[in-house]
Amino acid sequence: MRKDVLIAGFGGQGVLLAGNLLSYAAIDEGKNVSYFPAYGVEKRGGSATCTVVIADGAVGSPVVGQPSVLVVLNQASLERFGARVRPGGVLIVNSSLVDVSALGRTDIEIVSVPMNEIATDLGDPRMVNMVALGAYVALTDAVKLPSLAAALSQALPERNHKFIPANVKAIETGAEAARAKKEA
């Protein structure tokens, strides 16, 4: 088994935390993981991406030129990375902020989830990353949802552990939304 994902958005959307959490969950499941974050010099609003490769065997490189799954949280990320998705791959889109109509790809599966709306409805618009991660896991089975919930205590600083139940709810809601879109 080998799964790879590129998560892309802007600084402040929690892209790096999402990748870090996914990595911890995979490690806790006994899988090999490579986590490769990249971000602009700006504190908020600049580009933020991370690549996570999960495998049963050795992970050769953290660099993935054509990811099998791309999670985009903003329009600029779609424009920059949308063409890179491997044919037959999956594009998971934050339809709250991203319009895929100009992408012109028919060789990939596109799953649109209104991540910002879901996070806001749950009471915290900052949880868009957890909604996205739930959607990713529901569509790929890269890790189990309970593993993500358990790994939150490793990925979040102790001062933020009080937010773990809300994050778990956001992950579960993102997973439900992605499953519903896939079945539709």
From TrEMBL:
SUPFAM superfamilies for this protein: Pyruvate-ferredoxin oxidoreductase, PFOR, domain III (SSF53323)
Domain of life: Bacteria
Protein name as catalogued: 2-oxoacid:acceptor oxidoreductase family protein
Keywords (A to Z) from UniProt: Oxidoreductase
InterPro entries in UniProt: 2-oxoglutarate_synth_KorC (IPR052554), Pyrv/ketoisovalerate_OxRed_cat (IPR019752), Pyrv_flavodox_OxRed_cen (IPR002869)
Record-linked Gene3D superfamilies: Pyruvate-ferredoxin oxidoreductase, PFOR, domain III
Keyword Oxidoreductase part of the UniProt annotation: yes
Molecular function via GO: oxidoreductase activity, acting on the aldehyde or oxo group of donors
Domain Pyruvate/ketoisovalerate oxidoreductase catalytic span(s) in chain numbering: 11-176
Pfam families: POR
